[in-house]
């Protein structure tokens, strides 16, 4: 019996070291391996080991291909070179168009949305789920339209949550529609249904790099209802409490700049830029989470020729999109550009730092 347990432990340790693609094949070897690999405890251990060792760490890229009229997901390897060709593995996204946003990742899952359809996806195992639309009975004469979507995991309840911030409006013969209020609705993957909340939040805005999951909170660009201008609206995944974070004074609105925020050095980074023939990017870092006074300007990148907008901070580089729909890497210190042979429709690029997992959307929560 002791010998049998020892062998099982050895097999488990060996399987935990394998990438997801190999584990999917191993499920077909025998019934005992299938049972082991599909256990939530094994999936949790595999996920944690990947994270601690930073294994299978890569860039998950979303882009729209005009020639085939579809959005695809691709994996860019950990070591990117200027000689890289278009990624050979392309995962077609259902219900796709060039306006899809990519939110997350969270335990290997990402949320894809064009603010009409909302799709949860684990690209490691090609698992997709299109969420049902909310079906609440709004007051007579009022209609809803999505302003912002969020996605994350609540470790206390082991639940994945999708947050929808929507505007209620009424038709108006003179103006087309008249604003009424902002509502918040939450979808739980375990219960597979939407629920209403009584949260009072400001209007949120959408543009590229404006919705970020970080530090157990989801973040949107928003109106600052207390001070006027702009702010970051955060939502805590466990407490479901909203908070507004003020921006540095340099963000007096309007100032002619576009905004974006990404994650850099385990902090939220704010990028101010004005797309042109020679674009510069001012990078500000919130060194203490949630504290407006901690915003610190790091440096300015550029001017860069025909580079339009940021996509992702990756190690010591910034992934950027050129005006012709090509990806480039900019080394932060030297500001040297490295062109990648990866193309897509203009403004269709989204990217996240990704680590693969076995978590299944169809099973609800696979994380202990």
Automatic annotation (TrEMBL):
Entries under InterPro entries matching the protein: F-box-assoc_dom_typ1, F-box-assoc_interact_dom, F-box-like_dom_sf, F-box_dom, SCF_F-box_component
CDD domains per record: F-box_AtFBW1-like
Record field: transmembrane: none
Matches recorded under Pfam families: F-box (PF00646), FBA_1 (PF07734)
Domain F-box: 6-46
Protein name: F-box domain-containing protein
